Amino acid sequence: MRRHIDFYLATMRMSILEQIQYSVANYFYMIGMITEPVIYLVVWTTIAKQQGGMAGGYTVGAFAAYYIIWTLVRNMNIVLTPYAWEWRIREGRLSMELMRPINPIHNDVAFFAGWKFVVILLWLPLAAILSWIFKPAFEIRLMEVIVFFLAIWGAYLIRTMLLTLLGMISFWTTRVSAIFELYFGLELILSGRLVPMTIMPAWVQNLSNYLPFKWTFFFPIEALVGSMTDLQLWSGIGMQALWIVSGILILNLIWGPAIRRYSAVGG
Amino acid sequence: MPPAISVSNLSKHYKVPEREGGMKAAVTSLFNRKYRTVKAVDDISFDIEPGEIVGFLGPNGAGKTTTLKVLSGLLYSTSGRVNVLGFEPAKRPHDYLRQVALVMGNRNQLSWDLPAIDSFELQRSIYGIPAPEFKTTRDDFIDLLELKDLVNKPIRNLSLGERMKMEIVGALLHRPRVLFLDEPTIGLDVTMQRRIRAFIREYNQRWGATVLLTSHYMADVEALCRRIIVIHHGQTLFDGELNNLVTQFSSYKTLGVSLPNPEIDLSQYGEVLTRDGARVTLRVPKAKTSQVTANLLSDLQVDDLTVEDTPIDDVIDSVFTSTEEAK
Amino acid sequence: MNSIKLALTYLRIGVLNEMQYRVNFFIQLLQSFISVATGLIGLSLVFGQVDTLAGWSRPELLAVMGVHLLMGGVIRSVIQPNMERLMDDVRNGTLDFALTKPADAQTLVSVREFRFWQLVDVIVGGVVIGFAFFQLKESLGFLQLLGFLAALIMGGIMLYCVWLMVTTISFWVIRVQDISNLFEGLYAAGRWPVGIYPDWLRTGLTFLVPVAFAVTIPAEALTNRLTSASLLFAFGMTLVFIVLSRGLWRLGLSNYSGASS
């Protein structure tokens, strides 16, 4: 156990050192990524203005707040793409990782986690600029901030589990892009990425409660910019924990068979 | 003492789909998939004692990399038993992984953007090396390979040879008892190759590690291995000392003759291999060597005459071609 | 003309190459389908709240979506692959191979790559446009169609020029790969008529990355909003972009030195 913590700290440190060198590249990426929520924001602001200031229960300021925080949450839930597993297996990189006495997934989680610290730091000035342009309306309580900070890491871990599981499909078939693209399409609609879930029809909102997507996007954002009660906030964290634990359990179940399959066919 | 590596009747077969070209074959293959069994490794057995450095030789596709992968635990065997340091590699238990190292030339493990010293620190945490022991080993290696000025430079700023040195250091920091080296000197210049070979030899002598090495460069094998295993078509053709390979398989010797007069035709004495001005090399059947030598010396004015064994490369070549013809 | 023959040759090779990977057709079709589906969901969410968005009706916005998809297909099949390969060549020093061939370098590096299956998006985009027209219960007049095609071609040329200019910068500043990401993000803005964006963004989308010309103007042509002034403006801007990009290219080329290994 202690060795794992040691490993995580060492890997996170390496990751931070590396990513600091790539600040410019990181900024380019983040700016490119910001166009998406800005588009959504402008569209919904237009709608709200046409209707006298509100749309779907959100004011113009509320939409701005939603989509600005969206940018941080989005940065937090960007994890190793499932396509990377396909690449790893094909290029034989997985073999080298398997020779180390630590499961390669730990390396992914630790490496990206370190990166996230750099990302959060780089995001702050961007958030300031976006706030200056779009003038969000914020009403924040301390409890919301605490829960938000936990929730963004929860989002990170949940999405890591989900995309790792997806990526591991590559152990059994190489024709995976169709599955991946379908997944991303569903996620767009059901996670709160496209619009706040409360604007979705009731049956969609219901459905999303039983799926993990909403906990990677909508929940963290709403925790900060919405007005959830303390009970709602902490039960949300509880749901995140539930999804993380389920993900870990399933991963543990599948890892053995996946590696056996890999070792039978050869990398 | 039990052998470090023990392989009994190891076989690795692959089922490869087989199909002819053409539309008809394409359609029938949808219903009736034909498979062909490729025997990458076919019933090989050997034992390697602790501290031995053994070379695996064989042409591409012979089965040497496959064997190496089975030994390191990356590949499951189809049949047979493999035991390394008392472990079954296929299960890849963490205790096993902490005592072995797999180094593949051309595969980078160290972080590209950071100095090697940072990557070494990461290796420490992966293998759980106690700090004082780690520091000693690391500093030792840095001295041995003269890397003191380079460890603090980002890897991307190093030359290919320097990078390879760093990779090897990184791979051995946890002082593995067994090394699997796959083409460790590929792509490096001659000086660098020598440095790396010297380091491996030093590592083996100091810590008694067992080394299994595959290489295309005979120089690697000649410099490091006393024992070699020749693999072809998944089977062992030869397992023994390098010198014996030459005497067993080579039936020719090479004569180097320097003449004052470059015009003379020596083809009557043997097969002319090269002609470089006044220096000619001849290939002569072993049995006839003394006869031909005597004839040359009595018939001609010879400035210099050398008798050499066939270069090992040629020996190996002829071993393979003869087995090809035999099949 | 030599350039056209060259382009057609590469086209043929690209097609033959990609025909081997028939599975890519289905994957591309699936991606287009998902794109259209999520687009339609987006539209229905919008029109659950309002009847028009910035003066555009639902079928009209559907037409914009179609044009966006169509132009996206053109970018991803021809423009982007070539520019990305050019960036790689500059970075790896392999541009020399292209420069020593007996053809105009700019033409060569612009037509070498062709992702055939991305054309599926062009077809799907066309279908969406057709469907939008069906909903509009209008017919496409000849002049309208001409205006649409002209706007489309000019918009495409302008996007190509901008891509080329940014890629040419990699002659001086090697690390430009992340630009692709930025472009894709900005192009996504063309999904909606640029009129809805705040002034500063609209200016950027017109003069910097001419998404407005690539998507909104052709869509305006389809929905009878296009004025001849706009079309003339588009024509003028096209000329400006062509001159600028060609100039920058020649400057970059003359400064070029193969990257050392």
Fold and architecture overview:
The complex is a heterotrimer of chains A (267), B (327) and C (261). Chain A has one domain. Helix content of chain A is 77%, strand content 1%. Chain A contains 11 helices and 2 strands; from the N terminus they run H-H-E-E-H-H-H-H-H-H-H-H-H. The longest helix of chain A has 36 residues. Chain B is globular, with a radius of gyration of 25 Å. In chain B, a hairpin with a 2-residue loop joins strand 11 and strand 12. Chain B has a 6-stranded mixed sheet, with helices on both faces. Chain B has a 4-stranded antiparallel sheet with strand order 11-12-10-13. In chain B, strands 2-1-4 form a 3-stranded antiparallel sheet. By secondary structure, chain B is α/β, with parallel strands linked by helices. Chain B folds into 2 domains: 242 residues, Rossmann fold, CATH 3.40.50; 58 residues, 2-Layer Sandwich (Alpha-Beta Plaits), CATH 3.30.70. By secondary structure, chain C is an all-alpha fold. Chain C has one domain. Chain C contains 11 helices and no strands. The longest helix of chain C is centred in the first third of the chain and has 35 residues. Chain C starts with a helix and ends in a 6-residue tail after the last helix. The mean pLDDT of chain C is 86. Chains in contact: A-B, A-C. Chains A and B meet through helix 1, helix 5 and helix 11 of A and helix 2, helix 3, strand 5 and helix 4 of B.
